[in-house]
Amino acid sequence: xxxxxxxxxxxxxxxxxxxxxxxxxxxxxxxxxxxxxxxxxxxxxxxxxxxxxxxxxxxxxxxxxxxxxxxxxxx
Length: 75
Known about the structure:
By secondary structure, the chain is mainly alpha-helical.
């Protein structure tokens, strides 16, 4: 707030109040953007973790499945 008073002068309270309000509104928008980004990152992390688990289970199932004579190397 001291920076705003220096910028606009001590005597102009109305301008200082308007500048403080604008700064507060910008802060709110930044917080909303930050929150939305956190929600997206959290969702991506959870989806990635589920995908890893699914792939790990597939690998485990393949390793445990008995191979018949026809399922050897394919070259």
